[in-house]
Write a structure and sequence with these properties.
Number of domains of chain B: 1
CATH architecture of the largest domain in chain A: 3-Layer(aba) Sandwich
Largest sheet of chain A: 6 strands, mixed
Shape of chain B: elongated
Shape of chain A: globular
CATH superfamily of the largest domain in chain A: P-loop containing nucleotide triphosphate hydrolases
Largest sheet of chain B: none
Oligomer: heterodimer
CATH topology of the largest domain in chain A: Rossmann fold
Bound molecules: adenosine-5'-triphosphate, magnesium ion
Order of helices and strands of chain B: HHHHHHHH
Strand order of the largest sheet of chain A: 6-7-8-3-9-10
Distance between the termini of chain A: 37 Å
CATH class of the largest domain in chain A: Alpha Beta
Helix content of chain A: 40-55%
């Protein structure tokens, strides 16, 4: 479990996050949603400790990661996997080398064991046969999947995904959602996903945290979204007339 | 501006301090060091060779012109080419050139990794990026650049020979006599002190410039330029300091 406690973050005079407290639960897909610029990425980076909050604390279980020194933070990071919004794949390494990098750095496995683990992870993200290609030679969706494989290769306890399905077609996007959700449930890990994809919200949103202009506007689950009378949320999720019609149809049924 | 210098120096010291820790994995650091040695060493052989060849040649020709009809014996050309190459030209010119070639490359490579969030990705995995990106490059540079400088010194003298003996400025025997006269091993020591200091300067300045890049391609270009400019200025400044202190 991860607990954010009254997180505020400013860049210069601009306050991007305005006091956010939320618990992100183990074994669940915790979704952080919000319009572009709402502060999702900044919030995620604070959760993993890449940014320091201006005010507030982040707790991993009983550990406050904002109080840790470099060494202690490094120890916690062995348990963290992250998929970046821009993938952040190492472009001079092949797919396989990318996924193997954390193993090379931190595991005592033999060559064969590493290869097995890499193959298994690539299989999990349904990416067999691209081992020797470079990130520049595969499609955006495949890059996302490599990013996920790299994030889970060390069996993290905490998985963070920044927009895992931005720029993907709905079908691929659902595959990726299911993949992340399966990994979460199978390993009972704490997963935090940034998204503005409505399909994800309605499919895998065990816990949904809605940020609006740096403030916490709503918390709930996918089943509560339809019934919620929070206007900002309704406006955000059912943004188009088409979706509004669908919602009304669903509610009237 | 003054405060700025202190700010950069302070942040640089923090970076160095942070990088001086036990590597997470010696094998990975070793591989990276080897890759850098190859890039810096093998990758710079041709340019260093060419430049030192010409520098030696020009020194020989111009010195013979300055000697002209003076009373200084012609065989001094060999001696002058040798000493000016060892003390000044080989270490300084080589490192100025390497700042342009290797330094700008390091700044651009690390800066690109910063901008594409590669550095963040490594941090999240638990890698000490200050260390992983800096130490292998530093060690590779401290090892290969003095070797390149030694090579430059030999080729420089060779260049002096090629420019003066076949062209008839002086005889083979005279040149060799010059090269073997008044040899001071201490000068070689000065050469290596310079090579080490300059190697340290150009790697650390360049890695620093790359590591803290923000923004986009314009800033990346600036970081790369700054790496060369600041390395060059520091190299020349320390060249002067070492000259003052050691001669
Ligand atoms: N490093 C930074 N320096 C200054 N301002 C920043 C920085 N990072 C983000 N911001 C600001 O914080 C705000 C929130 O940005 P953030 O990237 O978190 O949005 P987001 O919700 O992830 O949007 P998107 O869905 O488009 O990815 C933006 O207004 C942005 O300008
Ligand atoms: Mg974002």
């Amino acid at each position: 479990m991860i607990r954010a406690d009254k997180i505020k973050k400013s860049f210069g005079s601009a306050e991007v996050l305005k006091g956010i407290s939320v618990e992100l639960e183990q074994g669940k897909n915790n979704l952080i949603i919000g319009r572009s610029g709402a502060g999702k990425t900044v919030f995620l980076k604070i959760l993993v400790g890449l940014f320091m909050p201006t005010v507030g604390d982040v707790w991993y279980g009983d550990t406050n990661i904002c109080q840790l020194n470099k060494k202690e933070l490094k120890a916690i990071r062995r348990e963290v996997g992250m998929l970046f919004q821009g993938n952040a794949l190492f472009d001079s390494m092949t797919v396989e080398e990318n996924v193997r990098f954390p193993l090379d750095m931190f595991s005592n496995m033999t060559r064969g064991e590493k290869q097995k683990r890499v193959d298994l992870c690539l299989e999990q993200v349904t990416l067999k046969g691209s081992n020797k290609k470079y990130p520049g030679e595969i499609s955006g969706g495949m890059q996302k999947r490599v990013g996920i494989a790299r994030a889970i290769v060390l069996n993290p306890k905490y998985l963070f995904c920044d927009e895992p399905n931005s720029g993907l077609d709905p079908k691929t996007s659902i595959t990726i959602d299911e993949l992340i959700s399966d990994i979460t449930k199978e390993n009972n890990i704490t997963t935090v996903i940034n998204t503005h994809d409505m399909n994800s919200v309605m499919e895998i949103g065990d816990k949904i945290v809605f940020l609006h202009l740096g403030e916490l506007a709503w918390i709930g689950s996918k089943d509560e979204v339809l019934e919620s009378d929070n206007e900002l949320l309704q406006d955000f999720i059912f943004a188009s007339p088409f979706l509004q019609k669908l919602r009304n149809a669903a509610l009237n049924r | 501006m003054n405060l700025n210098i202190f700010y950069h120096f302070g942040r640089f010291l923090l970076l160095v301090k942070q990088s001086l820790t036990r590597p997470e994995n010696f094998r990975m650091y070793w591989n990276e060091t080897m890759r850098q040695m190859n890039d810096i060493g093998i990758g710079s052989l041709v340019i260093v060779g060419l430049i030192s060849l010409f520098i030696g040649a020009v020194t020989a020709v111009q010195f013979s012109y300055q000697l002209g009809d003076s009373f200084v014996p012609m065989y001094y050309i060999g001696y002058i080419v040798r000493d000016s190459t060892i003390i000044e030209l080989a270490p300084t010119i080589t490192c100025l050139v390497l700042a342009g070639k290797v330094g700008s490359n390091m700044a651009a490579e690390i800066g690109g990794m910063r901008q594409k969030e590669h550095i963040d990705a490594m941090e999240i995995m638990g890698v000490n990026t200050a260390s992983y990106l800096f130490l292998p490059r530093l060690i590779a540079a401290l090892f290969t650049i003095p070797l390149l400088v030694s090579l430059a010194a030999f080729i420089g003298v060779g260049g002096g020979y090629l420019a003066s003996v076949p062209t008839g400025i002086l005889s083979d025997a005279d040149f060799v006599l010059g090269v073997r006269s008044f040899f001071e091993p201490y000068n070689v020591f000065i050469m290596y002190v310079k090579a080490f200091v300059f190697a340290f300067l150009l790697t650390s300045v360049s890695c620093y410039q790359g590591y803290f890049v923000k923004g986009g391609s314009i800033e990346l270009g600036q970081a790369s330029t700054n790496a060369v400019v600041f390395s060059d200025i520091l190299i020349l400044f320390f060249d002067f300091l070492i000259a003052l202190l050691l001669t």
